Amino acid sequence: MKLIECPRDAMQGWTEFIPTETKTEYLNALLRVGFDTLDFGSFVSPKAIPQLRDTAEVLAGLDLSSTRTKLLAIVANLRGAETALGYSEIQYIGFPLSVSETFQQRNTNKSIAEALTEVADMQNRCEQGGKTLVVYLSMGFGNPYGDPWNPAVLGEFTEKLAALGVRVVALSDTIGASTPETIIPPFRELIPAFPNIEFGAHLHTTPTTWREKVDAAFEAGCRRFDGALGGIGGCPMAADQLTGNMATENLVTYLEAAGVPTGLHMEAFREAQRLSQRVFVGH
C-alpha cells in the first residue's frame, strides 16, 4: 500500500500566497509522517500557478535527512521536466496527460498528440537521469466538455504509455465526476492487463462521496492512493468551483478499518493535521 500526500495539489489553487517559510515548515512536518511520496511542488509558469513560484526555495529548506518519503514534482512541459531533473532530491516527476483534448489544451496549452511526444521525451530523460515519470490520466472518469471517455479510452492511452516504458500511471478524477460504477471497470481491467505498470488513484471528491470511491478503487485492486490533509485543493484549470482532494485522514481511516497497515507515524500525522489548519486558515 502506498499513500501519496499532495500538499502541492492543496496549495496550488489557494488564492492568498502562502509564505515560503510556512510551506517549508508544513512540508517538513509531512516528511516526518512517513508517506511513501510527497507531491510537494511544481515547476510550471508562475503566471499559471503563482502559488508555487517558490518551489525551488521550498525544496532548499526541506529536511530529507531522516525521512523515507520520496519527493514528486509536477511539470506541464519539457522545460519544467528539465528543471526538475536538475534536482537530485526529487525522485518522481509527474505529468498530467488528459484523455480530454479540450482539457489538455486548457491545462498545458498543447494537444494530446503533442503531449504524448513530450511524454516520450520526458520518459527517456527520466530513465537517463535515474528518475521515475508518473503520468496522470486526467479527466479519466469524465469531463464537462463532452469529449469521449470510457474504459477503452483509458486502455488505449495506457497502451501507448506502456510502449514508452512508463511504469506509474494514476487514473485521475479531475472534477470529482467518478462513481463506483466508473471507477471499478478501468482498474479491474488495466491492472491485470499491464502488470509492469503501477496504477494509482487520484480521486477528487466531495465530503459525502469519498468512502464509496476509495472502496471501489481498493476492491478493484488499486494499492496506490493520492490524498491531501483536510481534503483541500483541486485543479484550478478544471472548473471555477474546486472539488476537493481525497482527504488523507479518510484514507487512513478506511485502511485501518480494512486492517491494512499504513506505516505512518500517527503522532507526526496529528501534528501535521494541526499545522495544516494554520497553513490554510491563517498564517
From TrEMBL:
GO molecular function, one term: metal ion binding
Occurrences of domain Pyruvate carboxyltransferase (ranges): 1-270
Domain of life: Bacteria
Keywords recorded for this protein, A-Z: Lyase, Metal-binding
GO biological process, one term: L-leucine catabolic process
Range of residues in the leader sequence: none
InterPro entries (UniProt xref): Aldolase_TIM, HMGL, PYR_CT
PROSITE patterns: PYR_CT
Listed PANTHER family: HYDROXYMETHYLGLUTARYL-COA LYASE
Family, per entry: Belongs to the HMG-CoA lyase family.
Designated name of the protein: Hydroxymethylglutaryl-CoA lyase
UniProt source species: Hymenobacter oligotrophus
